[in-house]
């Protein structure tokens, strides 16, 4: 008989941390904690295989499950000396979801299960607290009816409001046991009226209802959206963990809290967390009561005047600190733990690797190497490459003037400016229209994740460091200020107010998620610091990395940024970008529109000095590092003068009338410019263009070599070739110019001529092309476009639907399509190397900065990747991780 259910508790477990795929993160960690002797309330986990079975067999359970659940439940009863449904000593359980990857708040949970009209009396006696028991029962009815029976949540709120009004009180805490009893009667009547049948009293029916609801919640809209945003496959499924309840709300010797073994914002090695006396878990995260700090240090730092757990419950605090040390040493990573104290006994409910900011992630990895917990290689594997992005972007200039509107908690670091919107839906609409927005809410809930995702920053007026907004924003790397309580939001009027200042929808504000400040207007920023822990980590990254990382850059500013971020050369200098400058574009247009070679040469002569200066600057900044310069490759429409004024300007510059310019523009019009007269086709039809560019490159190389004493070795790259013939023609042009330049300079330099591989035909003919080409650079933007027959400029219109319908998994222009485009690259690598074993191979499409694509480049043995300057550190880390994985 297949095994579907795995028990834990009492210092032993059938599962372990290694069984995460089967038991989900939560189930695996509870099992592991049990195993290593951490006190965990006993329970059992129904495996993810049951979820898969459930969905592939018309929402039915596999054979044997019922029996295995019953046996596991009996085991829990025996361990605790309680019975499920017992009138005197009733066992209560929680039923929770738990997928392989954490999906906080996305799926359903039911607490206090096992309460009914009879067992509630048993609980009241056992706890000597009738009020607590009735409160628990009404919470259960509310949650179960919402999650399992589908009764609208707000109906319960309405009842509760009425009862409070009748009792003349405003707070839940002011209601008596008798009041709660009345609430229960009304809840049950309301549920019966809504559903036409009573609220289930049979505890077995309750537990199976909850299990079904949790499996069902795997397919709710929130979970589906979350999976899409985080790339979690549907096939993983969720596990269901059933665990005995412990109560943090049975009196003043009870508490509940969440803790991080290190500070999740800064990474500092300081125990960090929040708790509430006499409360249930959700009270801490819901932001309804203000949580208190665990440590005196935390309390002092955050300026709280509420007592810390360290002061209120010193011996339990010491026990918690011990468990913190055990768990962190065991998992060798920062943990996010949940605990409950029931009548003086500490229970751990959950531990998992804690979500953290990238700054914290880097600091923790580096510290753990110093502490001897991790090796350098393990530390390198600990940081998510994509996340580094956050560290590379500017932070607020501390010297810049600012008008602080309010201060909240520094929930997720980074600076963000944007226009205020008050709903997640508005955030999505505005962002679609290209607006940068700050999502501003009283508090956020799982429905808001789509809006949070597209926002520059998130601001809430309620909730703590572990509120939904804070946790989710940190995970997304979005700056967040939480709990800015001075701000009053008026959703109806679409505005917020702090004292006399009113901020309306659409007004610009700035958040500093590292200090908690909310500022009016846009505050200037400064460049990030790349030393310290970041520097140490990147040092280790470079030790293990085998692929080089270059940058795509053409301006001096980009080249300098690239150097600062550790680029080892320029892999793609797109020369056409150099001609958009107002001083040059007229000559450029003049050249394109000229009717004959003489006209073109006249315009090119004007461009030559500019172009030479460009390369002198680049070679100087790059200080002898390799620079690949690609000759002109624009689809011509990018340069055509389309307005009357532009046409008049070009006419004046080239001494012809406007009519002639108009006629030339019309003649050059192409239906399909991306597949038109571009790339080396320009060089083949008008060799004088490439001649001028080759001259500019080589003259610049000669000059910089002379002035610096270091020989520059330029790499000249021909775009969009289909085969060897075009390359040979273009190489002949370059070689002729080189001879002239070197003769005039009285010196020679080494230079290389290579090609982009960005058409399928070029990939197929790589063996022949490599006879001439000294290097290949895969232009995967065009290669994706031409292999898939999908316009890189227009694919956005339908790709999202393709993704939703599962035709493609990710955007192939962002993450390389390994099966198709990748296959062509592999083939070109093999064929190219067979002809010329020393051929240098790189990639310079957008994929060069995408971690998954970088890993692919490592696997097929490319020499380097080249990406935009800001992605250079990401590519370095991704390359290091790929090298480590390959070495395993
Ligand atoms: C490419 O096609 O991948 C490439 C790098 O060239 P461009 O994006 O300039 O067409
Ligand atoms: Mg291209």
Topology (SSEs and partners):
Blueprint: E1 5-9, E2 12-13, H1 20-35, E3 43-46, H2 48-56, H3 65-80, E4 83-84, E5 90-91, E6 93-99, E7 109-113, H4 119-127, H5 130-147, H6 153-167, H7 177-195, H8 203-217, H9 221-230, E8 238-244, E9 255-260, E10 272-277, H10 281-286, E11 292-293, H11 296-301, H12 309-312, H13 314-331, E12 335-342, E13 345-353, H14 358-370, H15 376-382, H16 389-392, E14 395-396, E15 404-407, E16 409-412, E17 415-421, H17 424-432, E18 437-441, H18 449-454, E19 457-460, H19 468-476, E20 480-482, E21 488-490, E22 495-498, E23 501-504, E24 508-512, E25 517-520, E26 525-526, H20 532-544, E27 548-552, H21 556-564, E28 570-574, H22 582-593, H23 597-622, E29 627-630, H24 644-654, H25 658-668, H26 680-685, H27 687-708, E30 715-718, H28 724-745, E31 752-757, H29 760-764, H30 766-772, E32 775-778, H31 780-788, H32 796-804, H33 821-835, E33 840-843, H34 851-859, E34 864-867, H35 872-887
Parallel strand pairs: 4-5, 17-18, 18-19, 19-20, 27-28, 27-34, 28-29, 29-30, 30-31, 31-32, 32-33, 33-34
Antiparallel strand pairs: 1-2, 1-3, 3-8, 6-7, 6-8, 9-10, 9-12, 10-11, 12-13, 14-26, 15-25, 16-20, 17-24, 21-22, 22-23, 24-25
Helix pairs in contact: 4-5, 5-7, 6-7, 14-15, 14-20, 15-20, 20-35, 21-23, 22-23, 22-24, 23-27, 24-25, 27-28, 28-30, 30-33, 34-35
The chain binds phosphoenolpyruvate and magnesium ion (MG).
Magnesium ion (MG) binds at residues 719, 758, 779, 781-782.
């Amino acid at each position: 008989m297949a095994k579907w259910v795995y028990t834990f508790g009492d210092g032993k477990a059938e599962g372990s941390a290694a069984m995460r795929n089967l038991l989900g993160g939560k189930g695996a960690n509870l099992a592991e904690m049990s195993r290593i002797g951490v006190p965990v309330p006993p329970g059992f986990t129904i495996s993810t295989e049951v979820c898969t079975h459930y969905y592939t067999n018309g929402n039915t359970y596999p054979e044997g499950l019922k029996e295995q659940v019953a046996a596991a439940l009996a085991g829990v009863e025996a361990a605790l000396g309680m019975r499920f449904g017992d009138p005197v000593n009733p066992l209560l359980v929680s039923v929770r979801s738990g997928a392989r990857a954490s999906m906080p708040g996305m799926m359903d949970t039911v607490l206090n299960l096992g309460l009914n009209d009879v067992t509630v009396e048993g609980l009241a006696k056992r706890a000597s607290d009738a009020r607590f028991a009735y409160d628990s029962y009404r919470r259960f009815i509310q949650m179960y009816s919402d999650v399992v029976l589908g009764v609208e949540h707000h109906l319960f709120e309405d009842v509760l409001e009425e009862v409070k009004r009748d009792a003349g009180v405003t707070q839940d805490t002011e209601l008596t046991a008798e009041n709660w009893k009345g609430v229960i009667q009304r809840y049950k009547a309301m549920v019966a009226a809504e559903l036409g049948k009573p609220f289930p009293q049979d505890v077995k029916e309750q537990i199976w209802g909850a299990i079904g609801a949790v499996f069902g919640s795997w397919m709710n809209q929130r979970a589906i959206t979350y999976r899409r945003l985080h790339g979690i496959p549907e096939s993983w499924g969720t596990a269901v963990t059933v665990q005995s309840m412990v109560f943090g709300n049975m009196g003043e010797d009870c508490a509940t809290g969440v803790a991080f073994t290190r500070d999740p914002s800064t990474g500092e090695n300081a125990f960090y967390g929040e708790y509430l006396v006499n409360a249930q878990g959700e009270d801490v995260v819901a932001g309804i009561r203000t949580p208190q700090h665990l440590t005196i240090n935390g309390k002092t730092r955050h300026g709280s005047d509420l007592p810390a757990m360290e002061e209120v419950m010193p011996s339990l605090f010491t026990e918690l600190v011990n468990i913190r040390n055990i768990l962190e040493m065991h998992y060798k990573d920062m943990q996010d733990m949940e605990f409950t104290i029931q009548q003086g006994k500490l229970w751990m409910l959950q531990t998992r690797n804690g979500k953290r900011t990238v700054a914290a992630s880097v600091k923790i990895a580096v510290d753990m190497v110093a502490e001897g917990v991790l090796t350098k290689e393990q530390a390198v594997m600990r940081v998510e490459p994509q996340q580094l992005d956050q560290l590379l972007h500017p932070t607020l200039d501390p010297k810049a003037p600012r008008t602080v509107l309010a201060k909240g908690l520094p929930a997720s670091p980074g600076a963000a400016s944007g226009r205020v919107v008050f709903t997640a839906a508005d955030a999505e609409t505005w962002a679609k229209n290209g607006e940068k927005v700050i999502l501003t809410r009283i508090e956020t809930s799982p429905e808001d994740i789509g809006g949070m995702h597209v926002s520059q920053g998130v601001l809430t007026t309620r909730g703590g460091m572990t509120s939904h907004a804070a946790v989710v924003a940190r995970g997304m790397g979005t700056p967040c200020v939480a709990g800015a309580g001075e701000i009053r939001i008026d959703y109806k009027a679409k505005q917020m107010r702090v004292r006399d200042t009113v901020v309306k929808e659409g007004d610009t504000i700035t958040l500093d998620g590292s200090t908690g400040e909310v500022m009016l207007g846009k505050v200037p920023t400064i460049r990030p610091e790349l030393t310290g822990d970041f520097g140490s980590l990147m040092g280790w990254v470079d030790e293990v990395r085998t692929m080089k990382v270059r940058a795509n850059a053409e301006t001096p500013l980009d080249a300098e940024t690239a150097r600062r971020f550790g680029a080892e050369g320029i892999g793609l200098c797109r020369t056409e970008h150099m001609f958009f400058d107002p001083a040059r574009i007229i000559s450029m247009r003049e050249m394109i529109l000229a009717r004959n070679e003489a006209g073109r040469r006249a315009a090119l002569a004007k461009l030559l000095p500019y172009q030479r200066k460009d390369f002198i600057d680049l070679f100087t900044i790059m200080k002898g590092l390799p620079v690949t310069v690609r000759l002109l490759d624009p689809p011509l429409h990018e340069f055509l003068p389309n307005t009357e004024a532009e046409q008049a300007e070009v006419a004046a510059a080239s001494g012809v009338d406007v009519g002639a310019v108009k006629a030339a523009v019309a003649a050059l019009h192409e239906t399909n410019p991306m597949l038109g007269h571009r790339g080396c086709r320009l060089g083949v039809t008008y060799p004088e263009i490439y001649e001028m560019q080759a001259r500019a490159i080589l003259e610049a190389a000669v000059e910089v070599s002379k002035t610096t004493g270091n020989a520059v070795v330029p790499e000249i790259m021909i775009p969009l070739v289909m085969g060897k013939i075009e390359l040979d023609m273009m190489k002949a042009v370059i070689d002729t110019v080189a001879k002239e330049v070197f003769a005039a300079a009285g010196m020679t330099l080494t230079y290389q001529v290579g090609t982009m591989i960005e058409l399928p035909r070029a990939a197929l003919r790589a063996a022949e092309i490599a006879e001439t080409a000294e290097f290949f650079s895969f232009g995967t933007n065009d290669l994706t476009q031409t292999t898939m027959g999908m316009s890189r400029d227009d694919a956005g219109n339908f790709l999202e639907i393709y993704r939703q319908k599962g035709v493609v998994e990710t955007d192939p222009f962002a993450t390389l399509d390994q099966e198709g485009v990748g296959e062509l690259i592999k083939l070109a690598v093999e064929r190219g190397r067979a002809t010329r074993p020393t051929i240098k191979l790189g990639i310079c499409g957008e994929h060069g900065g995408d971690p998954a694509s970088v890993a692919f480049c490592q696997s097929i043995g490319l020499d380097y990747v080249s990406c935009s300057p800001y992605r250079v550190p990401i590519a370095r880390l991704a390359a290091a991780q790929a090298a480590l994985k390959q070495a395993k």
